[in-house]
Design brief:
The chain has four helices and no strands. By secondary structure, the chain is mainly alpha-helical. The protein folds into two domains: 2-52, no CATH class; 65-96. The chain is elongated.
């Protein structure tokens, strides 16, 4: 729809820059920019609305062994990373409390 509008403006009124909509790369970049702007402006409001309506994801704790192993692997990964970065024991305590 915008393509046809800008094509009309280019042919009838010779507006400079209106021919940019002929390029698919410009239209793609424009769509990405517009979507980022819309999500930045309305994102928080939409999330708050969905929380108010109690739309969300329920995560059940089934006590599965695999679930506990994943947490241990995640914790080990962070401890190794902090050791490489030479983080102090205070950071280790914070991570253990997670």
């Amino acid at each position: 729809m915008l393509y046809e509008l800008f094509y009309y403006l280019e042919t009838q009124y010779q507006i400079s820059g209106a021919s940019l909509f002929q390029f698919i790369s410009f239209r793609s970049a424009f769509a990405v920019i517009i979507s980022l702007i819309v999500s930045t402006i309305f994102g928080k409001k939409i999330i708050d609305f969905l929380k108010k309506k109690q739309v969300g994801e329920n995560i059940r704790d089934l006590g599965l062994n695999g679930q506990k192993e994943k947490h241990l692997i995640h914790l080990t990964h962070h401890l190794i990373w902090m050791k490489e970065k030479k983080k102090g024991p205070q950071q280790w305590k914070k991570l253990a409390l997670m």
